[in-house]
Amino acid sequence: MAKKKTSNDNEIQVYEAKICDLIPDNKNFNKGTEYGQKLLEDSMRKFGAGRSVLLDKNNRLIGGNKASETAGAIDINDVIIVETDGTKLVAVKRTDIDLDTQQGREMALADNAVGKANLAWDEKMLAEMSDELDFDPHDWGVDLNIPDNGDNGDGDEPPENPDGQRKNNAFVAKLTFPSDDKLQSFIKMYTDELSQQYGCTISVSGGEL
Asked: 3-state secondary structure string, 119-159?
């Protein structure tokens, strides 16, 4: 592995490694999405590697699990590791790209779009880890929607009352949209029709429309 020193007093270590040296997070909070994964692969094939990934001191991935997996899948196998203690911002400089070109601006769009489309919280894992390690996902803007009625989220039927009846006769369908615009479009088109024809309501983030 290569190592580079900037000065005697301020040493920065840079190593060359392989993608297989990076250890995936086996408790990753992000499950990703099929659509987001497609965008990620399309972006990496078209523009190459963009953002860096984040490792802990044992080469385990803190951030960038999906990017590392995709890089390996499309034969981007070489990795440069920069050691830091968090007191300096590590910047990746692409010497082949100018921001104010079609390629540069489209890459900027892809960078943001992929991150948004490929996020799907593993709420069960997040709840378990936050309880075990005593942190609150709400502090980071993440509200968990874990049922408190004993449902394990695996498709089991709702728990029954002592008389053997279900607590209610409502059935819930979960729809996932790739963007807020798609969601709002769906709501505008179907809210009134669904209500009139089927007597159902649409709820978003716990709020009834």
From this structure: CCECHHHHHHHHHHHCCCHHHHCCCCCCCCCCCCCCCCCCC
Contacts 24+ apart (CB under 8 A), 87-93: 90/52, 92/50, 92/51, 92/52
Crossing angle between the packed helical segments 34-47 and 102-117, to the nearest 10 degrees = 160
Q: How many Cβ atoms sit within 10 Å of the Cβ of residue 21?
A: 13
Q: Is 52 exposed, middle or buried (0-12, 13-18, 19+ CB in 10 A)?
A: middle
Q: In this model, does residue 165 exceed pLDDT 70?
A: no
pLDDT per residue over 65-76, tens digit each?
A: 999 999 999 999
Residue 82 has pLDDT above 70, yes or no: yes
Sign, Cα dihedral of 57, 58, 62, 66: positive
Rg (CA), the chain: 23
What is the β-pairing status of strands 61-63 and 207-208? Answer: unpaired
Q: What is the pLDDT of residue 201?
A: 64
For every residue of 88-109, DSSP letters joined together read S------TT--TTSHHHHHHHH
Q: Per residue in 90-124, is it b (16+ CB within 10 Å) or e — as a string?
A: eeeeeeeeeeeeeeeeebeebeebbeebbeebebe
